[in-house]
Specification:
It is a single chain. By secondary structure, this protein is an alpha/beta fold. The chain has a domain of about 90 residues: Barwin-like endoglucanases, CATH 2.40.40.10. The chain is about 15% helix and about 30% strand. The protein is built from two helices and six strands. The chain has a six-stranded mixed β-barrel with strand order 1-5-2-4-3-6. The longest helix is centred in the first third of the chain and has 15 residues.
């Protein structure tokens, strides 16, 4: 009986409460974020060097094989990432300044210097984990649900 009385009281309060002043629901995908969602990706990394030396990257910077930079398909240019070679656990911090890799099945393309630090120059490819450290301040962030965060 007590539960019935409490239930009726709650229902009455809800029925008598004033209508909400909240605006219409904002569609998912358009909510601004104060802090972007952190992203982790695991997959194959490759590297590029002399063939692109001195050529413009997608960011407008000239490619320098000796700088710690990388190409990624979707991360905003200027994003700072930590890439870890999952075979030897070596890691380094890089800046995304280009688009790529151009070969499917790879998640990131590193500069020669980055591949050297991670220890896979000779192998050419390495299974890596890419962790976003920070996004550029100039980004207009929106909440998105991405299928690109995957374990390959």
């Amino acid at each position: 009986m007590r539960k019935l009385v409490m239930g009726c009281a709650v229902a009455g309060l809800i029925a008598l409460s004033p209508p909400s002043e909240a605006g219409p629901a904002v569609p998912l995908g358009t909510l601004p974020l104060l802090h972007p969602v952190r992203k982790v990706e695991i997959g194959l990394a490759s590297w590029y060097g002399m063939e692109r030396q001195g050529m413009p990257t997608a960011s407008g910077q000239l490619f320098d094989k000796d700088r710690l930079t990388a190409a990624h398909r979707k991360l905003p240019l200027g994003t700072k990432v930590r890439v870890t070679n999952l075979k030897n656990l070596e890691s380094t911090e890089l800046t995304i300044n280009d688009r790529g890799p151009g070969i499917s099945g790879r998640v990131i393309d590193l500069s020669w210097a980055a591949a050297k630090q991670l220890g896979f120059l000779e192998a050419g490819l390495a299974r890596v984990q890419v962790d976003v450290i920070s996004y550029p301040k100039s980004c207009d962030w929106r909440l998105t649900i991405s299928k690109s965060t995957s374990v390959n």
